[in-house]
Write a structure and sequence with these properties.
By secondary structure, this protein is α/β, with parallel strands linked by helices. Helix content is 35%, strand content 22%. The strands form 3 sheets. Strands 3, 4, 7, 8, 9, 10, 11 and 12 form an 8-stranded mixed β-sheet that branches. Strands 5-2-1-6-15-14 form a 6-stranded mixed β-sheet, with helices on both faces.
Length: 410
């Protein structure tokens, strides 16, 4: 029986561990926190899962909150003009997405792994530990996307666009937001405030039940960038609410009475989007394979992070099983990552595009969503399958050709 070590108990690590466990592998997961500590900790993300990746979870029997989590059939998009009145304001059919607080999801998956007989080691892991473990396991997969271990994986300069954070982020989990009357709790909504940043509304499920997750994406140095140094959760939420009142007043009345779900339901910070090389060469000559945000870290503006994690876990699982009893050497590791990169490169390109000021043809495309439901629906669905954006988003000629086709059908 092949022995595989997975370092990190996040989305990709646990999905991969549970998949390997189902197929008879001897799997060990190393993590610093117990399930109880995860539940009692701070929120860690805004995770939104799209239909294609929800199907991957369902195929493994990991869709454990299907009867509790709000179903997000639509995505909304609003951009105000200079006068503050929205000139882009539409809803597109995205096919059904959902968001489960990772405190809920990861603690439950970790308990499931242990209950099924998986080896769980609760211990901080250093680079030296990884070096030792690489000599005692057939494969070591690093799924811990922060801290010392990430530094083992070199930046891929050809595939990485940014060298500094493009947004400063602030998340609040709240109860008491009144749903938009046209969609109830069935839509995620993105407000893009030109030159300042973005305000996301995302219905989800947290420890205390259904909630609204509000994400501020602040352009560094601008008026949205006001959360550095805030430690008090209530001050954090008050700052978020003031941004909504000032810059997205159409959402203020439905938000003003909301309250934080818990004292640890806020998070702020920043990171640089990056692509890293997938293989870490260790001092003893051993190798470790990076997965998901260890090797592809996207800004959350496009919601690609959790979906990339799920896709990476599925790709790596298939590659491990197909490889049989052959050694997991460096060539196999790089080939496996390239299989994932065939998907992830489209997520990176889409995220990079949305972080930049939109060119004129993209503004016209977004505005066309007001008039043509077909345009709004296609943009919404392409968030799940970002390869489709190649056909109509990035190049003005392709955008114009697509809009002419839509107008001719109307």
């Amino acid at each position: 029986m092949r022995r595989i070590l997975i370092v990190g108990a996040g989305h990709s690590g646990l999905q991969l561990a549970l998949g390997l466990q189902d197929r008879g592998y001897d799997v060990t997961v190393m993590t610093e926190r117990t399930p109880e500590e995860i539940r009692a900790g701070r929120v860690s993300s805004t995770q939104m899962m799209f239909p294609s990746q929800l199907a991957l979870e369902a195929a493994q029997g990991l869709d454990l909150w299907d009867d509790q989590v709000p179903k997000l059939a639509y995505t909304g998009f609003t951009i105000p003009g200079p006068d503050g009145v929205p000139f882009v304001d539409w809803l597109g059919d995205m096919g059904g997405s959902e968001s489960v607080d990772q405190r809920v999801k990861m603690s439950t998956w970790l308990e499931l792994f242990a209950r099924r007989g998986g080896h769980l080691v609760l211990h901080p892991v250093s680079v030296g530990d990884i070096d030792w473990y690489s000599r005692h396991y057939d494969l070591v997969v690093v799924a811990a996307g922060k801290g010392e271990l990430v530094a083992m994986f070199d930046r891929d300069h050809e595939r990485s666009v940014h060298t500094v954070p493009q947004r400063h982020l602030a998340v609040s989990y709240v109860h008491g937001v009144t749903p938009r009357p046209e969609v109830g709790r069935q839509a995620v909504h993105l407000n893009v405030i030109p030159g300042l940043g973005e305000l996301y509304y995302l219905p989800g499920l947290t420890l205390s039940g259904p909630c609204e997750i509000i994400l501020v994406e602040a352009i560094p140095g601008g008026p949205f960038d006001r959360f550095t140094g805030i430690r008090d959760p209530q001050e954090h939420w008050a700052s978020t609410l003031e941004l909504v009142r000032t810059h997205a007043p159409w959402d203020y009345e439905r938000t003003r009475a909301a309250e934080l779900t818990d004292a640890l339901g806020v998070l702020s910070g920043a990171f640089t989007p990056v692509v890293r090389r997938p293989v870490a060469e260790l001092p003893s000559g051993g190798l470790a394979l990076g997965i998901a945000d260890v090797v592809v870290a996207n800004d959350p503006i496009t919601g690609q992070g959790a979906n990339s994690a799920a896709r990476a876990a599925a790709v790596y699982l298939a590659a491990i099983v197909e490889h049989g009893d052959k050694p997991f050497d460096g060539d196999w590791m790089r080939d496996t990552f390239e299989r994932f990169w065939a998907y992830a490169r489209h997520s990176v390109k889409f995220t990079t595009a949305l972080l930049a000021p939109p060119p004129e043809h993209v503004v016209r495309l977004l505005a066309a969503g007001n008039e043509y439901r077909e345009v709004a629906d296609r943009m919404a669905r392409a968030i799940d399958t970002p390869a489709d954006f190649e056909n109509f988003l990035y190049e003005p000629d392709r955008t114009d050709a697509y809009l002419r086709e839509v107008a001719a059908r109307a």
